[in-house]
């Protein structure tokens, strides 16, 4: 879940993973398991089709939060590759999760064979088979149609979600979600979560919705922040944008109001089992990098000696590898038995114009199971220690009394004063404890948020984990962007933007699962802004215009949303236009497509980029669209994007799209039977012949009219049929 995992604090997930004990299946003997691993395998095989070429099976046994599960992973050793992964409850034998992925050797776009209705029946039948005892307690959530991508990667899937209903009130943390392939009806993903033995408060004497809205406004729940949209590609050359926005403050539980007491729910008295995207967005982005770094270090391949030529970067103004090592040693006590194994100079994820030294130490016995290591990152330009992660300094069996949180914070403060003396005065530590229950007792976690002109900066600051038994910092991450920050003058008043926010995400009554600091679970009845399960849901508002923006900072006017057009019935390209509607392309006029309107070059190119989805995280202006089209080779010369597109030009763009231009340029082998064939330019004949022969062009009365302007219907028809052509792998479709 780029999506679902975002709803949990990613660092918490990471640390819990590192605490889990994972054993080979053949050594199992826990009293928590009622079925064997062989029985778990059979349960999965009885309910799902595992491809015959997935012959390599790896199994594991996990215990977490008093629950025992088997992990089952089938993989293929042959081409094309693929995997099928499952998780089964070791006590009940229930299938909790499955996911599968296939590698496509010859990617080619295929229209979905199944309708949404067909896919829903498959999903509903599976629920009746696997969780029939709870089927009547769940409600199918009707979401917006997911966006279809013509990206030649994986088949189109229909996504469905059933939410647990208690006393007529939704409990979103429990239920079933599923993805079904539109090609063959295979279940691609299945997730079942159901917590037994919970006590749900009776929904009597709840405060009114009007009262809840007043509490939300008076608290207030929204906060003015500087927002940095996530960088999706480390290779990007664009500077990261800084936006001034209103979003839910980190102090409260996703904007929740207790429906029984009428009080706002704060995070300093309890931790939460679920966090909205808004809350997670306020936590330093450096925390996100911690997860991948810790996990990749633990599971790293055999280490190699550092490359000696890395000690002298090409840019003489950058520090050397040996200098970077010395910087780490000044801040971190490196155990004597640690050996520097790997080093590399790489672009900084958040500041792509700068580079960082990435260094890794571990012990001789690391590959034999001893999980002791140190990874560190040093900015090669400034010499800043950007981050480090040290395996726990304390033994889990150590009975020493751990430091209190207050003392651990002083230790963290002192470390930052030495590591970042100038920046330490520009941050404030979060007063709330996001992490609470479920975190190992020997650590304390602190998030220091950057503040600019009194305004907090989401995804910027410093992050510390303290081992309270060993009494040392074991993890440190700094994320600090170097862009200019826009002025905070002329922002919309808070009460006005709160009203706009509640119109977009109205409060709704729901049950929420709370995990107390002692690990106990509690159900609370709350009013909370409607939770969206879409990355393009409005989570923030532009502070100066009030316009909603998605998680990538794109305004609502530029969201890619599936469209159902109302003015295409009976058109010869109705099917093709409908498919393009699923991609969000050609959505300039919302529910109207305007099939007979002449299309401009810019509209076609933008539709092509929208349909493939590669740039869904970016706001593309006309200059960007033209630049990308030239880079892709769709155009060979600068053109005016507002100019109308001819059939001849359409043919060239479509043939270039499917990587057949080399064939189109061969002379003397093409002929067409159009009545106006003599009007075709010789250099265009190959393109037109191929486009016609492959069914991309729609021609009537055997007359081409090569210079005739293309309609929007013709363009949609051509684009869908171009993608239907089996073609070489497009390296841009990643």
Question: TL;DR of this structure?
Answer:
This protein has 18 helices and 26 strands. By secondary structure, it is of the alpha+beta class. The radius of gyration is 28 Å and the shape is globular.
Question: What are the defining features of this structure?
Answer:
734 residues; 25% helix; globular; 18 helices; alpha+beta; 4 domains; disordered N terminus
Written overview of the protein:
The chain has 734 residues and is an alpha+beta fold. The chain folds into 4 domains: 4-193, no CATH class; 209-281 and 488-556, no CATH class; 285-479, no CATH class; 560-723, no CATH class. 25% of the residues lie in helices and 25% in strands. It is built from 18 helices and 26 strands. The strands form 4 sheets. It has a 9-stranded antiparallel sheet with strand order 1-2-3-4-5-9-8-7-6, with helices on one face. Strands 15-16-17-18-22-21-20-19 form an 8-stranded antiparallel sheet, sandwiched between helices. Residues 1-29, 269-312 and 729-734 have low confidence and may be disordered.
For the record, the count of structural domains works out to: 4
Estimate percent helicity: 10-25%
| Alpha plus pi helix count | 18
Number of strands: 26
Shape: globular
Largest sheet, strands/sense/barrel: 9 strands, antiparallel
Structural class: alpha+beta
Strand order of the largest sheet: 1-2-3-4-5-9-8-7-6
Query: Roughly what fraction of the amino acids lie in strands?
Result: 15-25%
**Over all CA atoms, what is the radius of gyration?**
28 Å
């Amino acid at each position: 879940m780029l999506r679902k995992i975002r709803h949990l604090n990613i660092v918490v997930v990471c640390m819990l993973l590192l605490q889990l004990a994972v054993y080979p299946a053949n050594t199992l003997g826990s009293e928590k398991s009622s079925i064997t691993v062989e029985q778990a395998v059979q349960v999965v095989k009885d309910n799902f089709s595992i491809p015959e070429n997935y012959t390599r099976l790896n199994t594991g046994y996990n215990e977490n939060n008093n629950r025992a599960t088997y992990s089952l992973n089938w993989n293929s050793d042959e081409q094309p590759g693929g995997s099928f992964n499952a998780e089964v409850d070791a006590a009940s034998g229930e299938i909790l999760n499955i996911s599968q992925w296939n590698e496509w050797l010859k990617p080619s776009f295929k229209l979905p064979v199944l309708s949404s209705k067909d896919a829903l029946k498959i999903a509903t039948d599976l629920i009746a088979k696997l969780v029939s005892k709870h089927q009547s307690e769940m409600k199918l959530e009707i979401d917006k149609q997911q966006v279809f991508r013509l990206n030649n990667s994986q088949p189109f899937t229909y996504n469905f979600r059933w939410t647990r209903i208690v006393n007529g009130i939704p409990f979103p943390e429990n239920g079933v979600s599923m993805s079904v392939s539109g090609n063959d009806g295979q279940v691609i993903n299945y997730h079942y979560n159901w917590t037994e033995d919970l006590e749900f408060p009776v929904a009597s004497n709840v405060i009114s919705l009007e009262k809840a809205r007043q509490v939300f406004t008076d608290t207030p729940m929204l906060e003015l922040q500087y927002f940095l949209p996530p960088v999706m590609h480390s290779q990007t050359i664009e500077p990261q944008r800084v936006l001034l926005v209103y979003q839910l403050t980190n102090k409260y539980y996703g904007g929740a109001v207790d429906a029984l007491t009428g009080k706002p729910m704060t995070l300093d008295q309890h931790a939460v089992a679920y966090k909205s995207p808004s809350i997670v967005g306020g936590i330093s982005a450096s925390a996100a990098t911690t997860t991948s770094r810790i996990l990749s270090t633990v599971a790293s391949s055999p280490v190699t000696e550092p490359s000696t030529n890395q000690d002298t970067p090409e840019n003489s103004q950058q520090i050397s590898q040996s200098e970077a090592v010395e910087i780490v040693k000044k801040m971190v006590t490196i155990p004597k038995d640690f050996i520097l194994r790997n080093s590399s100079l790489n672009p900084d994820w958040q500041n792509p114009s700068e580079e960082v030294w990435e260094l890794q130490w571990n012990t001789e016995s690391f590959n034999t199971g001893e999980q002791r290591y140190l990874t560190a990152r040093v900015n090669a330009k400034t010499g800043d220690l950007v981050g480090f992660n040290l395996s726990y300094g304390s033994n889990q069996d150590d009975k020493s009394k751990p430091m209190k949180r207050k003392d651990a914070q002083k230790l963290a403060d002192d470390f930052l004063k030495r590591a970042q003396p100038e920046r330490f005065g520009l941050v404030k530590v979060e007063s709330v404890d996001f992490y609470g229950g479920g975190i190992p007792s020997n650590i304390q976690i602190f998030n220091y948020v950057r503040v600019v002109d009194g305004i907090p900066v989401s995804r910027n600051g410093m992050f510390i984990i303290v081992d309270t038994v060993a009494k040392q910092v074991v993890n440190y991450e700094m994320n600090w962007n170097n862009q200019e920050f826009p002025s905070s003058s002329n922002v919309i008043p808070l009460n006005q933007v709160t009203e706009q926010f509640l119109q977009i995400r109205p409060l709704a009554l729901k049950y929420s699962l709370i995990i107390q600091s002692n690990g106990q679970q509690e159900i609370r009845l709350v009013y909370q802004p409607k939770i969206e399960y879409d990355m393009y849901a409005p989570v923030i508002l532009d502070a100066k215009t009030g316009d909603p923006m998605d998680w990538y900072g794109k305004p609502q006017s530029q969201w890619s949303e599936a469209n159902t057009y109302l003015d295409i019935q009976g058109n010869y390209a109705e099917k093709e236009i409908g498919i393009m509607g699923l991609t969000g392309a050609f959505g300039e006029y919302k529910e109207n497509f305007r099939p007979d309107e002449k299309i401009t070059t810019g509209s076609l190119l933008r539709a092509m980029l929208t349909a493939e989805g590669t740039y869904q995280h970016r706001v593309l202006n006309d200059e960007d669209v033209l630049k990308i089209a030239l880079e892709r080779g769709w155009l060979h010369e600068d053109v005016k994007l507002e100019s109308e597109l001819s059939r001849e030009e359409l043919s060239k763009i479509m043939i270039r799209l499917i990587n057949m231009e080399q064939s189109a340029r061969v002379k003397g082998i093409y002929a067409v039977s159009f009545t106006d064939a003599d009007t075709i330019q010789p250099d265009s004949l190959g393109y037109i012949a191929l486009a016609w022969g492959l069914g991309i062009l729609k021609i009537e009365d055997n007359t081409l009219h090569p210079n005739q302007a293309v309609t929007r219907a013709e363009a949609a028809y051509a684009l869908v049929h171009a993608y239907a052509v089996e073609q070489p792998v497009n390296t841009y479709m990643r």
